[in-house]
Amino acid sequence: MIVYIVLSMLFAFLLGYIWGKRRGWETGYLEAEAVVPLNLRQQSLEQGKCVICEEYWLQTMTAEKNVQYEKE
């Protein structure tokens, strides 16, 4: 009788652990989806260049201004 109680308690704890682990992963992914774009943007602004393509902001801004002046 005691063996069944111990096994059922162990099974309940195991199910709780698995459920909590899965729920933690899901919550982590949702938080990462919200935070990662903001961190990339912050890094880009701090470094003065795009983190993804390594293009410098100053060169892009200057090139865009030259194109606008040539159009006018």
Descriptive key words:
72 residues; mainly alpha; 85% helix
Structure characterization notes:
This protein has helices at about 1-45, 55-70. Helix content is about 85%, strand content about 0%. It contains 2 helices and no strands.
Calculate the mean pLDDT score and round it.
81
Shape: rod-shaped
Q: Which structural class should the secondary elements be placed in? A: mainly alpha
pLDDT < 50 stretches: none
Major β-sheet annotation: none
* Tally of alpha and pi helices: 2
Radius of gyration: 26 Å
Listing every helix as H and every strand as E from the N terminus to the C terminus, the arrangement reads HH
Summarize the structure.
With 72 residues, this protein is mostly helical. The chain is 85% helix and 0% strand.
Helix/strand layout:
Layout (H helix, E strand, L loop, with lengths): L1 H46 L9 H15 L1
